[in-house]
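[job 0417] fold request received: SGNH hydrolase-type esterase domain-containing protein
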Amino acid sequence: AGVPGNTTADALKRLEHDVFAHRPRVVVVLLGGNDYLRKIPIAETRRNLDAIVRICQEQGAMVAVVGIKIGVFKDAFGELYEEIAEARGALYVKNIWQGIFGNPKLMSDSIHPNTAGYRLMAERFAVELEALLEASEQAGKS
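[job 0417] inference complete; emitting structure tokens
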């Protein structure tokens, strides 16, 4: 459950109430942009993202980490998503932003996609998540 302006630290505090109260089988982690914009140290963002993934897995959820490797995120900040997903055995979803960020037809402002942009992201994301959702369905039946 995203909240505009939230950092990874804010999201970490909200996990119990906003996420685990719904007993999800799959959690999608798409966070960190506000950390970058606020110049929060990368080490703090890494700790928070890693904790979010770990805690979600401890609660029994499968986790998908969405990478942000666009524009200014092509530095070490952009790399941490894949590194955390790999270290935690989570699904890493990449390239869903490709062709969206910076495209005025798909953006509502300089940072956020519009409805068409989010629709395209969702379509790309659905392809990536299909295997994870199937595995979750099987786990739910056992």
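[job 0417] notes: The chain has five helices and three strands. Strands lie at 26-29, 62-66, 91-93.
[job 0417] exit 0
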